[in-house]
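Form 7-S
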Amino acid sequence: MSFLFKLFNNKNIKELEKINLTLSEKLQNLQKELEEKEVLISNYSSLQSKPNTDYSKQWQLMEKNLRNLQEENRMLKENFIKLNRIIPKQQWQYSFLVDLHYFYSANKFVSIREKLLESGVKYLQEINEEMFSTLLKEDRYVQEGLQKFLDYKKGIIDWDVKTFLMKGDKVTKIYQKSRKFLNILSEQNIEFMVDLESFDFQSLNEFGFSQEDIDAFKQKYESYNAERKI
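Output:
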């Protein structure tokens, strides 16, 4: 069983499965409702620019409706963003270990990162809830750090962390010393380490790479997966 699965109990998995079943439908409905309200807001705004003194009460009502629509629109957008950040359960089975500095990237979490690293914790998936009441209990931002971790366990994750979790590092970081190789990968739309899964390293012969270079590129890919892929 992977590190990531250990972090999710059966209850959380079942809850997220239910969320995932209706996620697409909810997103579509929210998008449709957002579009409809944007049209209404536009219509009200257009009418406001042509005031009619004979119907002052109607205009007051329209202004009130416009304010209500704008507030509803704001809340809908917030819900849309939140729903779109939920990771479908089936994607947990294919992921990479995430460095602490990617997850706790804000400056206020520097102390939390340092304490975790000092205790031997290098990756997000190695954290457990108990650490916040023991190792990190005296930290100023322990509650915020805990909440961020609990959100992660529910599948609510910032986009950059979600991308790393599913795709690993960018190839530009891992192969930064070989510009020629990176140019070839770029031409084939290979951006992340996960994209190399179906890449034919032997095809690099056609670009003038020696077998020694090819073996080195492939070995680096395999070593990365052995260390980071869950």
